[in-house]
Amino acid sequence: MKQKNGAWLLALAAMLCSIGGVCIKGVPWTPLAINGARNAIAACITGAFLWRAGRRLRWNGAVACGALSLALTTNLYVFATKLAGAANAILLMYTAPIFVLLYLWLAKGQKPPRAAVAACVLVFAGIGCFVADGLAAGTLLGNALGLGSGVAYAGVFLVNTEPEGDAMSSYFLGQVAGALIGLPFLSGETDFSFVPMVCIFALGVFQLGLSYVLIARGIATTPPMTASLVTAIEPILTPVWVALAYGERLSGFSLAGAVLVLCSVVWFNTRGRKAL
């Protein structure tokens, strides 16, 4: 029952994360300025939860690796989007389940069950179908950074695999690091009108703040392989919200990819994860 509740928390977190595309379109700032501002707000949210729960901020090697993973994920994704395009960046970022699987196999000696391998392949294929219409060659550097964000994002789900790991501390410190990196770029921005401010608030509170509180709670009772696959609904929902909000149309190929991802996640969560 706890695993099932954890998976639901992760699914809700993915839904909150998926509003990023809609909100970012409403902010005419540079990517690093957006990332710095949303991380600053998110750090306040996560810090408030730590304080409210009476939990001390922990610091050790595992926590530092988790914090670095989140900071790298948010920043590498921003750069990958700038250099290789949003479609390439989101696809490469969601190679994360593959890196989770490889880490657990090579570093922890946990041979992946066939269900996990099958789910990884199906999810990756579905995301590939969904973004195929918008795929561009991108730059070699941009694609490399996008792949790096996938490696880093795997670390977000692996933070609790070490005995001394603490997801909430890692996420808070990662958000602080992201804020420190990006906030200096706010000095070059001039548009602080109502719509950009509302979008930044939504990005900080919901897309990066509450979502990672939910992820921290979800991965406490959910295996990292399951967690990374459940949250793979995010890259499917992100362009759906953009299409609904801005009138962009989705092709039949895109919809087929979305159905494949959702069906794969549901199948793995109800049947396949029993093998983990």
Kindly state the number of beta strands. 0
Shape label = globular
| Number of individual domains | 1
Element-level helix/strand string: HHHHHHHHHHHHH
Approximate helicity band: over 70%
Biggest sheet: strands, sense, closure? none
Low-confidence stretches: none
How many helices? 13
Label the structural class: mainly alpha
Rounded mean pLDDT is 84
What does this structure look like?
The chain is mostly helical and 276 residues long. The protein has one domain (2-112, 136-222). 74% of the residues lie in helices and 0% in strands. It has helices at residues 2-17, 20-25, 31-52, 61-84, 86-93, 96-106, 114-131, 140-158, 167-182, 194-218, 224-230, 234-246, 252-270. Helix 3 runs antiparallel to helix 9 (167-182) and helix 6 runs antiparallel to helix 11 (224-230). It is globular and about 50 Å long. The mean pLDDT is 84.
SSE topology:
Blueprint: H1 2-17, H2 20-25, H3 31-52, H4 61-84, H5 86-93, H6 96-106, H7 114-131, H8 140-158, H9 167-182, H10 194-218, H11 224-230, H12 234-246, H13 252-270
Helix pairs in contact: 1-10, 3-9, 3-10, 4-5, 4-8, 4-9, 5-8, 6-8, 6-11, 7-13, 9-10
Can you give keywords for this protein?
276 residues, mainly alpha, 74% helix, globular
Explain briefly what this protein structure is.
With 276 residues, the protein is mainly α. The protein contains 13 helices and no strands.
